[in-house]
Write the structure tokens for this entry.
Amino acid sequence: MLFVFYILDKPGTSEQRLALRSAQYEHLGKVEAQMKIGGPLLAEDGKTMTGSLLVIDFEDREAAQAWLDEAPFTTGGVFGEAKIHAYTQNWPRRNTS
């Protein structure tokens, strides 16, 4: 099942984010084959990273939550508010025949 992760960074954690980035990328690599999209949310300047938006296929919500709980940005105190929602992709349309 697909899950959307909408995650906002805690204020003032830009330096932590950069310091933990390679560890976070390694963690993302563990689910790369399951990932549909992923990347940072940006501030109005189009450059400053303020969070993350990911769509990843997990067996269930518990597995999705466990993966997030183990993320270096979570354990390292970068991630603040995090929402996980089940998701169905309808667009672009897929051939269902």
